[in-house]
Amino acid sequence: MRASKVQTLMAAALACLLAGTAAAQAYKAPRNAFGQPDFSGTWTNASITQLERPAQFKSLTITPEQAGAMERGYASRRTSDAKPSDPNAPAPKPGQDPGGYNAFWIDPGTKVGSIRGELRSSWIVEPADGKLPYSAEGRKHFLVEVDKIRSNFDGPEVRHLAERCLMGFGSTAGPPMMNVLYNNTYQFQQTRDHLVIVVEMNHDARIIRLGDKTHPKADIRTWMGDSIGWWEGDTLVVETTNFHPGEQLRPGIPTTFYVSTEAKVTERFTRVSSAQILYEFTVDDPKTYTRPWRAEMPINAAKGPVYEYACHEGNYALPGILGGARYAEAQGKKPETVDVGE
Q: Would you say residue 257 has pLDDT above 70?
């Protein structure tokens, strides 16, 4: 009797999965005025699923029970971290970490990512272990860049781009586009010849040329690289090269990773329902990784508008960091900062 019940449940789960797959295949994306699949609108990749697979999971797909435990654990930590700050707390001691604002400002999402009806433990699908396949040399380059953030305070030019309000942290604009602690909203604006992705984090505007399969000379390097796109059926394929040397380290929480100037990132955008874009990407970077790695992520419909991200408005972080470094040096001490997540 028990075996029969298990078989019935398994059959029902398989039927749901197949039904979801069939529905995605049958879905026909709406067209814009140029006859293209229409991506225009406001979207979000907020999720508690991240790029690499956590140690507690051994497979790409997890059960509803495992996903529920992750979501409840996150909600509990969020509630604790969002408690009001004590206005009567004394000032921190010299050299002590003053901490940051509470979790009221944090908005990473609350749910595990779901793709084709599967709950995902990571965005990486290849390699099968869900880990970034660094080569020995690639990891060395990665750690050198991380050490610069930890130890170099010579001036604003050596601090990473997010501190300088030049780019969002954690590769939010990408490519590849990653989910981080907050500001995970995107606005897609589409014409016949261009797709512009406006990123809530630091109001980055990524411009993708459609129908152009030629990149400029390699010495022309912009912050988000050079992106060209073309249509393969209802899927928009985007290839990006010519990455800027200042954007090699992508420092984010919890995921920090490295993309060299010689990398090629290939993305695929496919509308699979009225409320979701399937976002797939491959990073081909022989200088950093032993093999290309591939990931899948859902980008879900979101309510607008995308609000302005006024990074420099009352931002005391950078002068505070450099001022603190000068003070430490005057005391004969080595400046230090908090570690970047790896």
A: yes
